[in-house]
Design goal:
It comes from Zoogloea oleivorans. This protein has about 325 residues and is of the alpha/beta class. The chain contains 12 helices and 12 strands.
Length: about 325
Amino acid sequence: MSTQIPVLAITSGEPAGIGPDLCAALPRREWPARLVVLGDREMIAARIHAVEPSLDIIDYTRDGAPREGCLEVLHVPLAMPASAGKLDPVNARYVLDVLDRAIAGCKSGEFAGMVTAPVHKGIICDAGVPFSGHTEYLAEATGTPLVVMMLVGGGLRVALATTHLPLKDVSAAITRPLLVDTLRILHKDLQARFGLAAPRILVAGLNPHAGEGGHMGSEEIEVITPVLDALRAEGMQLIGPLPADTLFVPHTLEQGDAVLAMYHDQGLPVLKHASFGGGVNVTLGLPIIRTSVDHGTALDLAGSGRADPGSLFAAVELAIAMAAGRPKV
């Protein structure tokens, strides 16, 4: 690194969404890091100056230094000019180019970590590029066999055993090897990234009432409980499987440091209710640091000046803390 403070890549995300608007808010605060926004310079300048007309933009150079009140931009060119609120599949490849540049910089040590603004999965797929989300894309790009999505906010840490799957496919996806690997990654990164020497993990069941002793499903008996028993024998502190409808009550949450939910909409609605606008998406198991906002592209707000940067600020704060080895807990 050319500076003693961490250098973070901030990807500006879908150009028709609120990502560029959120980036405009970064100079409102002083950060103990150098923040480099990745995206098309002209597009970012146009969107930013519509809401922050006095904000200066400077071009990123690797040996440069942060300047107070300025936004540092690493130029990645658009395929076609972008308009706020109007998706264009022609620019799908640009969105991935921005991600690829950030990933390459993290892998090489140029960046200490990356923070991602929202992308639009549908428009990328419409362009003919299979894309199920940042998490899966980062795993493939870094050659990581398995990563774990965890959201942090509202006093909660909620990780997922499965991510962007149709509900009908979830049961078949929850296998013993998947749960073993997921829990090991979660346990390891709670120690390494969040400073928890002996993390306590609350594990949700898949079915209502955690299967009700097999009367409402057998996955708890056949898959989840055997995995928990095996990992407890290795020394992990695992509580469950617990009924998801009562797992998130204060008395139960006090017994754990993180929750493992079996599928996306089992755990995340609770966390987003508790923290929306200030939650952070963290990808565990990667060889690099990656945090993200907890919301989507909000096309209706793009270019309006009304986008709330709270989640981006929280994601930057957490990435800085993780890069500095003093994670926010």
